[in-house]
């Protein structure tokens, strides 16, 4: 009997048509978008993260938005978040 082992890790690949965003040198004064995926505890985790980012790293503001779980973000949401935020955190929960 043989056992086949799969390695689930893979290097990050950019979404077709988009490159991977450059990371900022720091968070001081930046606007952060928190995209809550409606999973259990995700809103509470992201709210706490937002408070910590403001207190520890000088983030100017955090804006929470709910998104659908398990689907790609619509171009409208990507544009909206991209135009109103400097960086974004998506999901977390369970």
List the helices and strands and how they pair.
Blueprint: E1 31-36, H1 42-57, E2 61-66, H2 75-84, E3 87-90
Parallel strand pairs: 1-2, 1-3
Give an overview in words.
The chain has 94 residues and is of the alpha/beta class. It is 28% helix and 17% strand. The protein has two helices and three strands. The chain has helices at 42-57, 75-84; strands spanning 31-36, 61-66, 87-90. A three-stranded parallel beta sheet has the order 2-1-3, with helices on both faces. The longest helix is centred in the middle third of the chain and has 16 residues, at 42-57. The model has no long low-confidence stretch (mean pLDDT 85).
The share of residues in helices is 25-40%
Strand content: 15-25%
- Radius of gyration using CA atoms only: 16 Å
Order of helices and strands: EHEHE
Distance between the termini: 36 Å
Q: What is the approximate shape?
A: globular
- DSSP summary, beta strand count: 3
Number of helices: 2
Stretches with pLDDT under 50, minimum 5 residues: none
Side by side, the strands of the main sheet go 2-1-3
Report the structural category. Answer: alpha/beta
> Mean of the pLDDT scores?
85
Major pleated sheet: 3 strands, parallel
Structure characteristics:
three-stranded parallel beta sheet, alpha/beta, 2 helices, 3 strands, 94 residues
Compact description:
The chain is built from 2 helices and 3 strands. The protein has 94 residues and is α/β, with parallel strands linked by helices.
């Amino acid at each position: 009997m043989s056992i086949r082992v799969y390695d689930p890790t893979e290097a990050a690949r950019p979404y077709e048509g988009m490159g991977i965003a450059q990371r900022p040198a720091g968070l001081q004064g930046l606007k952060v978008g928190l995209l809550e995926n409606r999973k259990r505890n995700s809103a509470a985790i992201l709210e706490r993260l937002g408070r910590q980012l403001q207190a520890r790293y000088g983030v100017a503001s955090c804006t929470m938005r709910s998104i659908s779980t398990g689907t790609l973000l619509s171009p409208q949401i990507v544009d909206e978040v991209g135009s109103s935020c400097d960086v974004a955190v998506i999901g977390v929960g369970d």
